[in-house]
Design brief:
About 40% of the residues lie in helices and about 20% in strands. It is an alpha/beta fold. The protein has two domains: about 5-130, Rossmann fold; about 145-280 and about 315-345, NAD(P)-binding Rossmann-like Domain (Rossmann fold). The strands form two sheets. Strands 1, 2, 3, 4, 5, 6 and 7 form a seven-stranded mixed sheet that branches. Strands 10-9-8-11-12-13 form a six-stranded parallel sheet, sandwiched between helices. A hairpin with a 5-residue loop joins strand 2 (about 15-20) and strand 3. Helix 4 (about 145-165) crosses helix 5 (about 180-190), helix 4 (about 145-165) runs parallel beside helix 11 and helix 11 (about 305-330) crosses helix 12. The longest helix has 25 residues, at about 305-330. It is globular, with a radius of gyration of 20 Å.
């Protein structure tokens, strides 16, 4: 398939290339320049609609940076990359997009691998794997769903935060924002644990879970008091106005880059709302990628439940370490993150799963 490069630019240590696939479909690939000579780039394929090319490119760059942080934090052996597509999600565009992604990855000759992200599923990865070998999330264990793995990781992060705040054995109130596969998995686990769970989704029926309180008809969801806000929807969902009105004490996120600006962190600090940076809590998919790429024989032998438990344990432990570091210096977990990232950058890779 022929795709046309329409632009490329470098920002700090990252590069983004933009390709026109067809009249309505555009594809960006962003990757880390600082590590590409030594490490394979890895990041999911996201498919949404964007206001313009600049918005699409900016998102690709931000997410690629987050992927580098995530890979560094969990010592996966990869560097950061991200593929971001713009266009309507319909079958003809899907076929063109998958062919374009395969063409681009083949041209990169194994320097970059991709997997699932928003509006892309394991079936797409299996189809891509017939067109290019540079795919994860497609084999050898299709029964492992990286979205569910992400949910287990976020849940592990939540439990770690609750333990640090003395809430582990008490019934608390949660607001889960975004009830796709990840949000539903987390909400069901929290309900099973005996917690009060409010659910919100732009598609109201998604939030109709047994024993959950569906608040999807409330546009002021962010004003409702809760102990923990769990963000499982889109990037940039928390803007300054929403942040100023939040009535929670902690935020844990499966959404990548959930804040619309850097000012949000300052607002949360002033409101004494703690936040676990999303690259700590939502690393389930990259941990699966590590197992699939670097521990393939072991991965083949692991059950689906063993993979999910491995993700849970790794992210629970990493969150615990971050919170302990923050407490040591009397700062927030978000403020401790850069120190924590630097510490992890000089440690060994992930231990093997049991």
């Amino acid at each position: 398939m022929s795709i046309k490069k329409v632009s490329e630019k470098s920002v700090n240590d990252f590069k983004v290339e933009t390709y026109q696939v067809n009249a309505q479909l555009r594809l960006c690939i962003a990757y880390d320049l600082s590590a590409t000579t030594n490490l394979i780039g890895n990041g999911g394929l996201r498919w949404l609609t964007y206001a313009d090319v600049a918005s699409q490119e900016d998102e690709a760059l931000i997410l690629a940076k987050h992927m580098t942080q995530k890979h560094t934090l969990y010592q996966t052996g990869f560097s950061g990359a991200k593929l971001v597509a713009h266009g309507e999600c319909h079958p003809e565009n899907r076929k063109d997009l998958l062919n374009a992604v395969a063409t681009l990855l083949n041209e990169k000759l194994g320097a970059i691998y991709t997997g699932c992200d928003m509006n892309i599923n394991n079936q797409d990865m299996c189809e891509l794997n017939t067109l290019t070998p540079y795919i994860l999330n497609s084999h050898p264990k299709p029964e492992v769903d990286t979205s569910i793995a992400t949910a287990f990781g976020v849940y592990g992060s939540l439990i770690s935060v609750m333990q640090s705040q003395g809430d582990a054995w008490q019934s608390k109130t949660f607001l889960v924002h975004g009830l796709g596969k990840i949000g539903q998995t987390i909400a069901k686990k929290l309900i099973a644990d005996g917690h009060r769970v409010m659910t919100y989704d732009i598609h109201m029926k998604n939030a109709d879970l047994p024993q959950a309180i569906n608040i999807s008809d409330n546009p002021q969801w962010h004003q409702l008091p809760c102990d923990y806000l769990v963000l499982c929807s889109a990037s940039h969902i928390i803007d300054e106005n929403i942040a100023l009105e939040l009535q929670c004490k902690s935020i844990v996120s499966s959404a990548n880059a959930p804040f619309s600006s850097e000012n949000i962190a300052s607002i949360l600090r002033e409101k004494q709302i703690s936040w676990i940076p999303d690259v700590v809590s939502n690393a389930g998919a990259v941990i699966c990628d590590y197992l699939e790429y670097y521990q393939l024989e072991l991965y083949k032998k692991m059950s689906r439940e063993a993979v999910y438990d491995y993700v849970y344990q790794r992210i629970h432990h990493k969150t615990q370490q971050l919170v302990q570091l923050a407490n040591q210096y009397s700062i927030t977990p978000a403020e401790a993150f850069d120190i924590f990232l630097n510490i992890n950058a000089h440690q060994i890779k992930l231990p093997k799963a049991a």
